Amino acid sequence: MMNFQTAVCNDSSINTYLKNCHEFLGEMGALEHSQRHAEIVSQRTIEILRGLEFDEYTCCLGQIAGYLHDIGNIVNRYEHGRAGSFLVLPFLKKINLDEVGISVILGAIGNHEENSGGFSVNSVSAAVLIADKSDVNRERVRKADISTFKPRDRVNYAVEQTQLTVDKSKRLITLSILIDQEISSVMGYFEIFITKMVLCRRAADYLKCSFELIINDTKVL
Known about the structure:
Blueprint lengths: L1 H8 L2 H16 L7 H17 L4 H13 L11 H15 L4 H12 L12 H12 L16 H8 E9 L4 E8 L6 H21 L3 E6 L2 E2 L2
Parallel strand pairs: 2-3
Antiparallel strand pairs: 1-2, 3-4
Helix pairs in contact: 1-4, 3-4, 3-7, 4-6, 4-7, 5-6, 6-7, 7-9, 8-9
């Protein structure tokens, strides 16, 4: 399976698409969606799956799906999950990934957006969804002038640190966040990201786990 992971993460066409996704979304004033984000979601996806002791094949599929999940932004910001699934299908066939693996990856990519339902259709899908929504931090804000920040910019900019942990024995997935409350309150974060956190809880349910959100050492979900 390592050959599949290498084929995806080192492919020049895939990485060009990711680079252009980041640039195109920048023209819209959207948050960062660069290769950095792809790598973090990929890594956190595999950490979730390994932490819950899924087999290495499933973990590999999660790593690939996490890396590719936002590639559909090259087409359009809206419905980018579905666009991404169609976009990567020929590539996944080209690297000779089996049909079952392709199906799992396409389902994960196509269902990670909250605007399209954010459904967990398989274990990889659930892990990608949680990994994606957990990447909140000030590095993702691209606007230089804080006076131009929208609420989502402000909340992301306020986040100084995030940590995602998996406790298999307790079947517990925890997202811990440190916020600078001079920039945004804890309630401000919760108001902006409530939909994402609910989706994380549902995804954790799919994985037969509980989801816990801790902000500044206080459990809020």
